[in-house]
Amino acid sequence: MCEQMLGAAGPSEGSGDPRRIPRMSYLVLARKYRPKTFSEMVGQEHVVQALSNALTQQRLHHAYLFTGTRGVGKTTVSRILAKSLNCQGPDGQGGITATPCGVCQACTDIDSGRFVDYTELDAASNRGVDEVQGLLEQAVYKPVQGRFKVFMIDEVHMLTNTAFNAMLKTLEEPPEYLKFVLATTDPQKVPVTVLSRCLQFNLRHMAPETALEHLTRVLATENVPAEPQALRLLSRAARGSMRDALSLTDQAIAFGSGQLQEAGVRQMLGSVDRSYVFRLVEALAQGDGKTVVETSDALRANGLSAASTLEDMSAVLQRMAVLQAVPQMAGAADPNDPEAAEIARLAALMPADETQLLYSICLHGRTELGLAPDEYAALTMALLRLLAFKPAPATGPAEKKTLNAAETAAPAAAATAAPVPTAAQERAQPQTRPEAPVAAMPPAHPQERASSAAQPSHAPVVAPAAAIREPAEPAPWEDAVAVLPEQDEPRPPVAASAAHAVPPVADAVRLPVRPQEQLGRRAPHAAGVAASSPAATSAPQPGDFVAIPVREAPEPGIRLQPAAPREGMPASARYTPTEEGDVWHATVTAMVAAEAINALVRELALQSQLVARDGGHWLLRVERESLNQPMARERLRAALEAAGHATQITVEVGQVIDSPARRNAHAAAERQRVAEEIVHNDPYVQTLMRDFGAKIVPGSIKPA
Asked: How confident is the prediction for the chain on average, in pLDDT?
């Protein structure tokens, strides 16, 4: 009306008067398409259903609290609720209803913001106790025009504590004609005394698909041509707010001169073209570092946002992970989505574990952009991080959980040696096996045991060529019936003489070790036989023990005995010293100091125990299964090989009694104990404690 009066009283349009005020003929989409009834609301079906049923059944509460992010409909729900309570119907005879007519005086006045019995208070600017008291003073008066008085307090969390306390009594027991409607974006800041007096409704984020459908209907009504991909960009950029989606659509229409095109919307939003994202993901899947760096440089040259790149990559990787976990989802993809086919192709190209790793790297990379001096450098480092952690392709046979080095050397030796019968051929030939239990078999002659025990594990190195072509000895932990060798034929004398010439060394000791799945497995009758038969007690059990070279060692001293833990020693610092533990601690300490291992590989080395060494094959034991990862094992093996220690490792899961981590913790605890002992024994400190009642603050003593 004011605009019409100004237009009538002011100069004519043709006068050219610069003081002329133009008429506001355009209403923004967010206001033009604000829902007027519950049926027009989208994405908040749970709130609509609860309020509609309450209005229909006349079960009305005196206070409502609506929470949710900006632009999800808190104020809109409040106005619709006020119209439902005060609607008079088209004929003026209506009552409380869940479907307000929208044509009566109460409905039109509430929509236009001039209904005297509907009061909206912005707590962001009226947060004091005086404003709240002024509002509550109106509560004593009955409605002037409507059926109920409705007080709507927006951003209620901005009120002061005094203002909250002032309204508690009225909020708990208001007059029958008064309804409170509170709205906030941060319900955590609202006192629990207020929350307990209200019915709370949480308005959800708008899903991108919901925003897309609503924008499609709005633009179809406005007769604005729009590309589907442009609307997808707008719905994602809204981030759950329908008001933001409509506002961005207004801006995009103005930017595109009345039409919405993907290129224009992408330029307006500053978002990255998905072709860059697809190129990066494909290059990372193929391990093409050159393409990754070139694409990152192209993003820099075009001025595209690094944060948007990582965000779009996270969205693409999330869809890829879904397709990898549920391949049936590919058939249910939206046919109008041009990205669905490309995402399905990338999902088949990249392994599922790399997809998860790259997704995590992208999420953490977004937080690192602000820490780096150059966001594009941070983007490049985040992308190259996957190539650094990308598992190397397997070039050899699968890892075997054994310590039998002969198994790995046998294929190479068999390639140059004369043909020999394989294990399968030997099994195919008829053989006579003893049917009696293993423990009941007669032991070998003492001379044979002595000769076999005198041979070191590296005897094949000095044996003649004829001995090399012999079948490899089976592993000592295999089943006794299957691996029991024939011992009628003595060893070559050359090997025996060489055994006396070569002194035994520590790294050549071969220990009876079995894989984890066979630990603790023993034939049921073995225990009984071993307990009752003296011969069985003295003879070694095939499958459990073998005749091995043993180095001369002194009687166990104090160093080899389990030390009693000190009083107050943490469990992580308690360990039982072992000879292999000394070697492993020195090896790991050297690799850590040289930065040869890091991250998960370093943790695996620190938390593991060296159980046995068989030449270049080491057996490790770790307590946590999560540390026993194939990638970590391979990198630890490579580090040990580079340091000249071991060429092959096997990691089993079991109890650890001696690890570098336990030794380091024990050393730290010992230093702390010595420091505390020095302070407690200081004469000056004792004088202060005795004469003045001084106390040592716990945790204040730190070793130098």
From this structure: 76
Paired tokens of 59:
């079960």
* Domain shared by 41 and 142, yes or no: yes
- Residue-wise pLDDT for 40-66, tens only, equals 898 899 999 999 999 999 899 999 999
Residue that is written with structure tokens 């106390």 in the block: 695
Strands 609-614 and 617-622, bridge-based pairing: antiparallel
Residue 688 pLDDT: 86
Tally of structural domains, the chain: 5
Q: Which of 217, 362, 224, 227 is nearest to 281 (CA)?
A: 362
Q: Are residues 139 and 106 in the same domain?
A: yes
Asked whether residue 56 is domain-assigned, the answer is yes
> CB within 8 A of 430, min separation 6: which ones?
none
> For 238-292, what is each residue's pLDDT tens digit?
888 999 999 999 999 998 888 888 888 888 887 778 888 999 999 998 888 899 9
Q: CA-based diameter of the chain, in Å? A: 129
Assess whether 238 and 347 both reside in one domain: no
State mean pLDDT over 492-514.
Answer: 44
Residue 540 clears pLDDT 50, i.e. is over it: no
Do 184 and 231 belong together in one domain?
A: no
Do 263 and 298 lie in one domain? The reply is no
Least confident range from 193-197, 426-430, 661-665: namely 426-430
Closest Cα to residue 661, out of 582, 602, 606?
Answer: 606
**Cβ within 8 Å of residue 204, ≥6 positions away:** 43, 44, 46, 68, 72, 240
Residues 181 and 322 grouped into a single domain: no
The domain boundary, picked from 202, 231, 260, lies at: 202
Q: Say if CB 635 and CB 604 are below 8 A apart.
A: no
Does pTM top 0.85 for this prediction?
A: no
The boundaries of the domain holding residue 258 are 205-271
CA triplet 607, 611, 615: central angle to 5 degrees? 120
Rounded to an integer, what distance in angstroms lies between the CA atom of residue 441 and that of residue 653? 34
3-state SS of 377-401 is HHHHHHHHHHHHHCCCCCCCCCCCC
